[in-house]
Write a structure and sequence with these properties.
Helix content is 49%, strand content 14%. By secondary structure, the protein is α+β, with helices and mostly antiparallel strands. A hairpin with a 2-residue loop joins strand 1 and strand 2. Helix 3 packs across helix 6. It is globular. The relative contact order is 0.15.
Length: 162
């Protein structure tokens, strides 16, 4: 191989936000899977502290993802604000019961990379974690930890009270 070819092969492309998002998704999923492999069903004890941290981030940064007087209003407003990010084409909650919903995420920009390449299972989508945190804060009820179902373009995650 010539020195010129070696130099071309070693050129590092500039990282963009999509690359970082893909890396962070992969890290989160790897961490969730590792904890489950080591702790089995006991791994669920780590989710609620993570949900609390999401609330702290929401409050301290002024993101303010909770707007509304009840969970239905809050989820409607959340759906609208998440769509403004341009990271998903669809973000909606389907009400299944008084304190049970399914979050449908469609057209996620990371799905083609993460879902097809890593084939995640037994892990919670980051959007699902955000929704669980908001559900817990708004309803004042502990949320049941539920893994997401992954599709080619998004996820479905059950959000419900324990």
């Amino acid at each position: 191989m010539s020195n010129q070819q070696s130099t071309v092969d070693n050129v590092q492309k500039k990282l963009d936000p999509m690359d970082i998002g893909t890396l962070l998704h992969g890290i989160l999923f790897a961490y969730q899977k590792s904890v489950k492999e080591i702790m089995g069903t006991g791994a669920a004890i780590f989710v609620h502290p993570v949900l609390d941290i999401i609330q702290t981030i929401n409050e301290k940064t002024g993101i303010n993802l909770i707007k509304g007087s009840n969970i239905d209003e809050v989820f409607t407003n959340l759906s609208e604000i998440i769509l403004t990010s341009g990271m998903v084409n669809g973000f909606r909650f389907e009400k299944l019961g008084p304190k049970k919903y399914i979050l449908h995420v469609e057209g996620c920009v990371w799905a083609p990379h993460i879902h097809e390449e890593l084939k995640p299972s037994d892990v919670v989508c980051p959007y699902g974690l955000i929704a669980m945190s908001i559900f817990q804060k708004t309803t004042k009820a502990k949320v049941r930890v539920a893994d997401s179902e992954y599709t080619k373009t998004g996820t479905d995650t059950i959000i419900e009270a324990l």
